Amino acid sequence: MPNNITFASARKKVGYCCITYTPCATPTPSFALDSANINTLMQAMVDTGCTEDYIRIEEGRCVGSVNGRNTFCGGILSDFNTATANCPIQDCTQPFQVGVFTNAAIDVANGVTVANGNRGETQGFPPNH
After folding, report:
1. pLDDT digits (tens, 9 = 90+) for 68-81
2. Helical H segments across 3-109, by residue range
3. pTM of the model
């Protein structure tokens, strides 16, 4: 079980009900968190596939998706296990929090250091979005 835990919170803006998290376009990968069950950083892992290092976004889902997930890891940020393309993850569960869970080890896979240096962008949405 990961032992380093960090929570980041965002305050809701007046008239807004959701927040969306998107990995930056560069560097590649800008999202990469290790999973005991992943052999490559070229796919997403969610929920029970994330056991080593992961982020937790309560009921996070790709914009427009019906798949609500809680944990995300691998080399792609998506709510679909084994996805090969990033998607913006929307969170409409307040308070907006992202938990970062790690096992405190820097792992190397395919020459890329994971669980280190993740970057992203956030954007709020009004209720009708």
Report:
1. 999 999 889 999 98
2. none
3. 0.74
